[in-house]
## 1
Amino acid sequence: MKYVSLVLISHSYEIVSGLKKLLSQVQPDVPIAIAGGAEGGIGTNALDIQTAIESVYSEKGVVVLFDLGSALINAEMALEMLEPDENIRIADAPLVEGAYAAVVEAGLGSSLAEVVRASESAKELVKIHR
């Protein structure tokens, strides 16, 4: 795989499914996996996250983005269930804007560190200038 992959985690399957569809239109070659909803409802599940990471893993790296606090806890649990790997990073970024910045950067063939940096820079995005 020649691109850093993304894993999108949300308490809602519909949110990450729609976001994946949007991002795939922006950069169709960047591998994206999703984990959303728990057992058909609202929530996250560490095993689903682990499976999503494994499905898009490559030596190029994987950036994990999430929506709310307990999604982070489950993402961290998923990483603990995997072999320790520096090529998997959880980004401290807003889900939508961070994922958008990440997929653009990944599509340029950037490194894992550059994709994480791009996603995390979305925290500084000013959407309305007054």
## 2
Amino acid sequence: MVALEQFYTALIAVLLLIALGVTVPVLGRIVRDGLERRRKRQAGELERYTEDEEYDRAARTLRPDDDPAANGRVTCRECGTRNDPAFTYCRRCTTPL
């Protein structure tokens, strides 16, 4: 008869092998994609930095309703993201506030 501890140890080992078998192909695709992007950047086929479609990093001016004292938020002058007043750096672009 197999001891309960041995059964649990074998079960954990099998589950770890299954998890490893699932993650290795995914990690391989991530590495291949990164190497392909690096090759394209070096060949000039891809821009070094691509802009996020959701936000434009161009400097924005503050509107009167963006006053930190009025709404308790601090708006980043670089990207326009609203941050908590306790933040030292913008949560989006990491520019000092």
## 3
Amino acid sequence: MPVIALHNRRFHYEDSGGSGTPVLALHGSFGRGTTFARIAELLAPEYRVIAPDLRGHGLSEGGGPFGRDEFVADAAGFVEALELAPVLLLGHSLGGVTAYQLAARRPELVRAVVVEDVGAVTDVPEVEQPVLDVTRWPRSFSTYQEAVEFFAMTPAPGYFLESVVERGGRWELLYDLDELMAVQRGNTGAWWDDWVAVPRPLLLLRASKSFLLSSGQAAEMVARRPGTELVTLDCGHWIHREDPDGYVAAVRAFLAAVRTT
């Protein structure tokens, strides 16, 4: 896995390679770049998917701060360091907020944006727990099966298990639980100013079974930012994992239209 130094820390990232059009894919909280592996396969060879482990996640270095400005600056740093501009952006959840904020604040770096199942408001009243309390989660497991059984309680076990690795005879999480609490808190808020300021083509993907983005907020996002394309897929929050074919079909159609404009 390649490594790059940005902002006095080391970031690991996945790179599907090839000569296709570069796509920067940003994962959500508790994730890592490998979550987009299947998407990279399905988008090849037309697109080259670059998927970093965001700060505090995966094999990238931890340590705060974990505010919106820092995540946006990291994404901008990737685009500039790898000379990807203007890049196509994919962002899921936490990464989706980062994607549209980068497009709003540094539009010269961005060609188009795909936002996966996250809103302009991330602490909406209908979401009972916008911040998942993980302070009592185990930080390691005696066996991998123990980790499998623990994460079976989540709606996306495979997603969480990607961040469980064997070290010194135990299976450890690739993130610090206190840091992930800070990551989540830093992502909660109302980001309408950034959303409406995005000057680039924008596709909003919503999961019909989403616990984070209601149909009402999605409709309001389209109304407040005319030109936003909205596609709803019949699955849960992790669209790129639960319906990769539907995800890629929507993304391909959107990006094909962008490339001809």
## 4
Amino acid sequence: MAHRGSCHCGNIGFSVDAPLDEAIACNCSHCLRKGYVLAFLPRSVLTLDPVDGEIGTYRFNTHKIAHHFCMTCGCAPYAEGISPDGGETAAINLRCIEGIDLAAVKITEVDGRAY
């Protein structure tokens, strides 16, 4: 099942070919401030559209996750990293998915402050 998403201004567009029925809400300093609801999936299910503007990248703490954001509108629709099993992973900000009903998504609270 393909889902469409983008940053606020549309410079970063993408599709995700996977069910988006589970996600996390992390309370680390970054996720809490941004209000992320993240679905972690294999990087292979994320397809980026050609980018119209510049993509910024922010890394913090252990620098394992590259949080990407639009340099025009500041919206952060996805991140990339390596999963604990060594595979390439994508973290999709479900708040950037078109037409998603977040009430239908199983959201697990994660204590990211503990790490």
